[in-house]
Amino acid sequence: MGVYGTSKLYNIMFAQELDNRVGADGVRSFAVHPGSAKSDLVTKIEPGMYNFLGKFVRLISQSTDNGAISSLYAATSDEVLATGASKLYGPNWFNMGNTAAREIGNKDVTPANNKILWEKTKEIVGV
């Protein structure tokens, strides 16, 4: 797994550990995947790469408004409040579509590993 994929995996693990720590206090943490949205982010890559990748990504992407739906759903849904970070919320088709709950299928996402990541993060930021 590359750096990008690892960073996304760590986001999920951190969300789960945070949810584990504060969920009993009525605060929920969850992981959200907005999908691929037609934002200006893709224009920030190298021009040659944008010509190749950027135009393709825009063809298979949803609007930025639709890209925000996963986050809005997660912030307001009773389903998400009930399950917290045990699922990943995002588009139900490829990188666009209605928001759906997905199982987190990575074998490295475990309570023990989430705690290790939490402690390492505290060490790095000096908390």
UniProtKB/TrEMBL annotation:
Record keywords, A-Z: Oxidoreductase
One of the record's GO molecular function terms: oxidoreductase activity
InterPro entries: NAD(P)-bd_dom_sf (IPR036291)
Family, similarity comment: Belongs to the short-chain dehydrogenases/reductases (SDR) family.
Name of this chain's protein: Protochlorophyllide reductase
Lineage of the organism: Eukaryota, Rhodophyta, Stylonematophyceae, Stylonematales, Stylonemataceae
